[in-house]
Amino acid sequence: MNIYFFIIIFSLTAVCLIGLISRQLNCKALSPELPDEFKGTFDADKYRKSQDYTRAGIGFENISSIFMTLVTLLFIICGGFNLLDIWAANFGFGEIGTGLIFFAGLAILSDIISIPFALYQTFVIEEKFGFNKTDLKTFIMDKLKGYLLGGILGGVLLSGVLLFFSMAGQFAWAWCWLFIVVVTLAIQYIAPTWILPLFNKFTPLEEGELKDKIEHFAQQNGFKISGIFMIDGSKRSTKANAYFTGFGKKKRIALFDTLIKELSTDEIVAVLAHEIGHSKLGHIRKMIIMSIINTGIIFLLMSLFLGNKELFAAFGMQNISIHAGLIFFALLYTPVSAVLAVFSNAKSRKHEFEADNFAAATTKTPAALVSALKKLSASNLSNLTPHPFYVWLEYSHPPVLKRIENLHSQQI
Questions:
Q1: 387 annotated as a binding-site residue
Q2: Which member of 275, 354, 394, 405 is catalytic?
Q3: Is 354 known to sit in a ligand binding site?
């Protein structure tokens, strides 16, 4: 048996099975008893509803994960990649053109398969539990905008990678690495002004107590921002959120209108203090550096496999090509990627605790962040008792009860 074929089939199957096991454990960990910390925040009906929402999400993810894994395995076994490669080559657009058509075909096939799941999740599950505010027109427009952006940005990135690997020789991986890093950072820089407004309306936060307190806190802690905006998150969901976008002089604070409606001024400042903490403590810089290093390692390893005949034989390919090699390496890399994700999540959870501590120390009101976390958990129907294995495998944030326990120890 082809060793690469075995590794890929085994890895895809194992990742799916481990996911199923972790979600089953997570389902069994749902406790009928409301944690004491949330008495007064959840009533019996809302707590029961949050558990029903978790079960619905687990069931949906199990079905979609099994289905997508089976489709992928079937596509590999039946020589789907070879057929797609022959189809792309028939257009006669040369190596880079063929590669772009190959990726476009793969993306279209993937999206056709995934759209029914996205529709069900949005218009059935999210609708049933009172979250969905997306209408069909918005859903379709988001898809079309996504295709446009994917075509432009994906086309630029893939064209560069294919060009360097076909012409740059031994150090092509390094040129690809540099190219991807530069373009990715450039996208992050322009995203607040040119990309994100395609999906949401950004309105400058009106003058008043909230804006004054946010600006005062940011100035007090040496955090420069280019603007504070409210975005129309309620156009798609009732769930609340806030985030920072951009970097350098383009840093913006974005507050969902749903967040402003849900939380008090002090609670919103505490949430933003947490986000500012990530920047001030160097978490964002560290994650960017680690991502850059990881990207370089991936391209170096990828360069060792792009012309590997045994790897191409595992997929029944008639021709060896750079564009197909990129996909095959990504599939071969599946177990490594899964392991690295576990370590990345562990580091992220540590950063979340540190950012909570920063917010508690700088606002001097840890109770405000505790109150915000409770309200957000209730409004988002969060799972309050996730299984430790599921947390270890999937969570980039600590469970909310752990965060609250930590904040109580930070009382000023």
A1: no
A2: 275
A3: no
pLDDT 10s digits, 223-246: 888 888 999 989 899 988 888 776
Q: Is 275 a catalytic residue?
A: yes
Residues, the chain? 412
Token pair, residue 269, equals 């400042």
Domains in the chain: ranges and CATH: 3-132+291-408 (no CATH), 202-262 (3.30.2010.10)
Q: Which of 294, 233, 235, 234 is nearest to 243 (CA)?
A: 233
Q: Which of 95, 209, 356, 405 is catalytic?
A: 356
**Residue 209 appears among annotated catalytic residues:** no
For 354-406, write each residue's pLDDT tens digit. Answer: 999 999 999 999 999 999 999 999 999 999 999 999 999 999 999 999 999 99
| Residues forming a β-bridge with 39 | 42
Contact between 366 and 360 (Cβ < 8 Å): yes
Angle 214-217-222 from CA coordinates, rounded to 5°: 125
**Around Cβ 374, how many Cβ atoms within 10 Å?**
19
Residue 274 marked as a ligand binder: yes
